[in-house]
Amino acid sequence: MGEPDVDALGIDLAPGRATGAGADELERAAEAALRPRSLDEFVGQRVVRDQLSLVLDAAVGRGAPPDHVLLSGPPGLGKTTLAMIIAAELATSLRVTSGPAIQHAGDLAAVLSSLDEGEVLFIDEIHRLARPAEELLYVAMEDFRVDIIVGKGAGASAIPLSLPRFTVVGATTRAGLLPAPLRDRFGFTGHLDFYSAEELERVLVRSARLLGADLAPDAAVEIAGRSRGTPRIANRLLRRVRDWAQVRGDGSLDLQAAHAALDVYQVDALGLDRLDRAVLTALCTRFGGGPVGLTTLAVTVGEEPETVETVAEPYLVREGLVGRTPRGRVATPAAWQHLGLTPPAEASTLFS
Ligand SMILES: Nc1ncnc2c1ncn2[C@@H]1O[C@H](COP(=O)(O)OP(=O)(O)OP(=O)(O)O)[C@@H](O)[C@H]1O
Ligand SMILES: [Mg+2]
């Protein structure tokens, strides 16, 4: 047996799955192999990278843990990757938990009281922490203390337990949902934005090298342009192109293989995924281009409003396909054009 092939785990992907921004368990294994391990390897996001490197270097220089760090941005842009890099740059270990995994304040108290000096505690989806846990976290982050409640009812008492200095790295796709007191306890907030095509090309070149694949430059350009500004999607499409080259091509990852694979997986010219297209189509064909409220739009495509708002909308807005107005979401002329539809005469007046 040779080296285990991480991508062997990714073959279950159904056609439509080639573009969604989220990752499932199987994909996470494939991703782990491609994750940058240091800030220097981390492509793009120059502003966040610069700021973070200052925070980390200063902390290392002082020999003390840095301020707590909050990372926000749409799925697949590198929040978990950065959390791992932070721990690596600080030469400490990373403890991982998530908002939904913490049901009770006691669960969080147990995690906190087991931390060692200087460790990094990564709390993914931190906006989904339950309120009592959130309140416990405020105190822990600020005073490095948890109050352990002993007993019940009137006889209950709180025994303060002091904690070692540690650093919380919180990740969220919805920074706006974090209550202000929690947000304020982060000394540094980094907002990750969609990557440019050129940055995604660099991600692809790096990933191809790690996969031992020879990616033609024009193929990299093609894949980057259809990756929805998202490294996770770029890496996924690269693996699909590699599959195509291996099974139907001559093994080379050239432009022809890229075109053919992207066709098989029905990745459209802008790299929109199924949810993106469903939202656009509903907006144009069911609601005549809007304006329509977020909740109505979400019900029409069978998704939670939160998913539409955090997963599909940011990219559609950034690509100039959807606009947000006080009366609801509207399709832009570019949206009609992208779907190959003719906008009704009044659609253009929404933007005049
Ligand atoms: N700046 C980058 N340079 C190179 N690769 C990257 C970069 N950012 C992300 N990636 C790749 O994209 C994959 C997804 O990134 P990551 O898991 O960090 O996203 P995330 O923001 O945590 O997403 P989610 O919100 O779904 O948890 C990683 O496996 C990594 O290989
Ligand atoms: Mg993540």
From TrEMBL:
The keyword DNA damage applies. Mg(2+) binds at residue 80. It comes from the Bacteria. It is found in: Cytoplasm. Gene3D superfamilies: 1.10.8.60, P-loop containing nucleotide triphosphate hydrolases (3.40.50.300), Winged helix-like DNA-binding domain superfamily/Winged helix DNA-binding domain (1.10.10.10). DNA binds at residues 324, 329. GO terms for molecular function: ATP binding; ATP hydrolysis activity; four-way junction DNA binding; four-way junction helicase activity. Residues 65-198 form the AAA+ ATPase domain. Belongs to the RuvB family. The RuvA-RuvB-RuvC complex processes Holliday junction (HJ) DNA during genetic recombination and DNA repair, while the RuvA-RuvB complex plays an important role in the rescue of blocked DNA replication forks via replication fork reversal (RFR). RuvA specifically binds to HJ cruciform DNA, conferring on it an open structure. The RuvB hexamer acts as an ATP-dependent pump, pulling dsDNA into and through the RuvAB complex. RuvB forms 2 homohexamers on either side of HJ DNA bound by 1 or 2 RuvA tetramers; 4 subunits per hexamer contact DNA at a time. Has 3 domains, the large (RuvB-L) and small ATPase (RuvB-S) domains and the C-terminal head (RuvB-H) domain. The head domain binds DNA, while the ATPase domains jointly bind ATP, ADP or are empty depending on the state of the subunit in the translocation cycle. During a single DNA translocation step the structure of each domain remains the same, but their relative positions change. This is Holliday junction branch migration complex subunit RuvB. It comes from Sanguibacter antarcticus.
